[in-house]
Amino acid sequence: MITVEARAAEFACSPKRAPTFARGSMATLWDEDGHEYIDCGASFGVGNLGHCNPAIVDAIGSQARELIHVGPAFGTTAKETFVGKLLSVAPRNLERVFLSNSGSEAVEAAIKFARAATGRTKIVAAMRGFHGRTMGALSATWRKEFREPFEPLVPGFVHVPFNDVDALRRAVDQGTAAVLLEAVQGEGGVHVASPEYLPAAREICDRAGALLILDEVQTGMGRTGRLFAVERWGVEPDLLTLAKSLAGGVPIGATLATQDVERAFKGSHNSTFGGNPLACAAGSAAIDYTVRERLWERAERLGGDAITRLRSLDAPSVREVRGLGLMIGIELRGKSAPVLQAMQEEGVLAIGGGSSVVRLLPPLVIPEAQWSRAIDVLGRALTNG
Q1: Which residues contact 88 (CB under 8 A, 6 or more apart)?
Q2: 162 is catalytic
Q3: Is the pLDDT of residue 374 over 90?
Q4: What is the mean pLDDT of the segment spanning 294-310?
Q5: Tens-place pLDDT, residues 248-297
Q6: Known catalytic residue at 215
Q7: Which of these is catalytic: 82, 130, 228, 265?
Q8: If I label 126, which of 22, 71, 241, 258 is the partner at 20 to 30 A Cα–Cα?
Q9: Distance between CA atoms of 215 and 221, rounded to whole angstroms?
């Protein structure tokens, strides 16, 4: 049952009076009263391909006429096709895929695989990191307001400052199963890993015999100006998690692993709806569309232009503008809620990344005119605030 309190908590970093939407098309949403909005975050990073992208709609319709669901003990042509496409674009050392329904589930699977494959229990994660709200993923998440109501959480998790190589080196020892990191901390305020951080994490893990898990639930599939954010660092993880935009808006999660992890794994793990044919068909269409249109290149160009414009603003309220591609955070000297509300009143939707950060996660297909207008609206909200 969804309570009023739970619903309110979900929108704690959103403007007041969040609209109720009736329909959407690419980067545009319409509420139940017919008001039009530009989506620069309402999909929480799911909408890389926009709302109701025809390629996704057609794939879902075609698959629904063929097969909607069978249990995970059986294969389907939709799942086989999707897994093949995913592995063809993923980091080359990752050759195994476990499918689930969400980013939290993908992270849960990665944690279980790491513990079972290494025989160790300790997981080292980063402060400000966000990995989900199920119990294992929440244990790896830093923010106390997410954690405290549900404690005690899963034991064995340690948090260190993000981008602090020395702290990471001190924390990882012979009892460490894995280090779990984001290349860009999204919920934590759009903090980008330094050039040396992920390579150092790889070296530290190798030296201790630990696994490196990269959470690309939000950064994956073109969002940061590369198909996968980790490409910028030239690092090969042992496990990689994906979800959000992976199937163009249909719920899906994927945990990718090396053959070594699979061979060392002991135990069992499964998901009733993981690899659902509808989700897999949508995922295949999403990968095809993303690669055909080279959306990561568009994200790099539009995001770079926007960051330059935002950094040039004469806005004393802005402390810092940071990000990669179309994953942008504007850290303010005050609260983000008034800025988000001002933007919403002008028909542009963004979200928070903590209480003082405005986060932009527009569809990678957003028309340039809409994106330019959204940045104009944000600029006014920042300079008038």
Answers
A1: none
A2: no
A3: yes
A4: 98
A5: 999 999 999 999 999 999 999 999 999 999 999 999 999 999 999 999 99
A6: yes
A7: 130
A8: 258
A9: 12
Q: Per CATH, the architecture of 4-52+294-384 is what? A: Alpha-Beta Complex (3.90)
Say which of 85, 112, 122, 244 is annotated catalytic: 244
Band (385; pLDDT cuts 50, 70, 90)? low
Domain(s) labelled CATH 3.40.640.10 in the chain stretch across 54-293
Longest alpha-carbon distance in the chain: 59
Neighbours of 199 (CB within 10 A): 15
Where do the CATH 3.90.1150.10 domains begin and end in the chain?
4-52+294-384
Tokens encoding 5: 């309190």
Nearest to 363 by CA among 295, 279, 307: 295
Q: Does domain 54-293 have CATH number 3.30.360.10?
A: no
Q: What is the mean pLDDT of residues 116-128?
A: 98
Catalytic site includes residue 335: no
- Determine contact, residues 106/253, Cβ cutoff 8 Å: yes
- Residues paired with residue 351 on neighbouring β-strands, in sequence order: 359
